[in-house]
Model the fold of this input.
Amino acid sequence: MVELDPTGRNVHGEVARLRENGPAALVLLPGEVRAWSVTRPELIKRLAGDPRVSRDPRRHWSAMATVPPDWPLNAFVQLKSLITAYGEDHRRLRKPLSGTFGRRRLELLRPRIEEIVDRLIDDMDADAGTPICLRERFAAQVPAEVMWDLFGVPDSLRARFSSGLPRFTNTAATPDEAGAAFNEMVSCATELLAVKRVFPGQDLATDLVEGQASDQSMTDEVLIHTLITMLGAGIDTTSNHIANAARALAVDPVQRRLAVSGEVGWDDVVEESLRRDGPVMHLPLRFAVEDFDLEGVTIKQGDAILLAFGAPGRDPSWHVDAHEFDLTRSEKDHLAFGYGVHYCVGAPLARLEGAIALERLFTCFPDLELAVPPDELIPHTSFIGCGFQSLPVNLRPRVPAER
Ligand code: HEM
Done:
């Protein structure tokens, strides 16, 4: 059995080894919890689309009762929201969110995203000449500010959410740290709910509060957990995506020129980055609703299953030279946003944020380069979130905007 490295030092190398171990490989998660790791693209699709596989630990995980309350990954099974719901419960909880990022809504959001990106670029430009951390100053800020706006998060709660949410994916956290992070996020979301009840606004948190009137299953607890799910899923993932794509362009002048010159579109940059550097690798957890066979491996009812959504993009059976970042490749298929009924609600928004942020950043700073050798970048301590803790860059002179 492979013990997944909680420090996430070499997530892609680890997945390459798991891929060799057959259709499903038994892995040990922090806290000695066992799960079947599935890395191959067609099997991930099969399981993510199979009603015999559930995301609800309360109904379908045989070990749920024995997992201690301080299990480091508890946040992923304790949350009661669409992400841990099954069947009809999932359909009901997803319904109020599923239309959230339709084309019309996104076009209304575009100018606001552009404004946020331009302001952050101006702020960074004021410090050009010295290395800056692009993750902290830009990649983490863009999605955070978009989500604060969308959910009407007051200034007083933003710093607390920003420091607590990324801790959910720290797979090397001690049980105390993980428990404290979860409690802090519940406390923040509870405050957000209280604010919206007294001061409703034109935002998604208010929409969810108002939706309670017509849906009795949306208890306060589920609403609070839904807010945490949305903010957690929407910020760190997209930060990793923007930073990973910026890093790929920063270290490769040929690819950078293809993008900056317009020979390939910014949507291609987004897709190639999602393929090669998916922001989410393993996403805990799923559970077998009944016994079934997976290409010769028997998965027993109640077993835990861990799908590696970040693995297929680099699967050599799917892509030639899968480890190469190549904007000109014609097939950029990936499962970075998942598959099936739990497919990412925010995928259109994440793609839009990525395209706007990267285009404006590299149009202003076409010679942007890393300020440290690439192998000195330190990955997140996580086998869930894929990215780097910081991204020091030299912006180089800014290109004046065309008038
Ligand atoms: C590049 C950025 C993003 C990546 C890589 C990503 C990845 C994923 C993945 C892999 C899943 C599937 C979970 C599963 O099947 O188990 C998912 C679900 C989800 N994502 Fe995203 N996500 C991103 C951005 C966002 C954004 C911006 C939002 C919100 C605005 C969001 C909200 C959600 C929600 C609510 C779910 C749960 C859907 C369900 O269970 O039905 N995500 N995401």
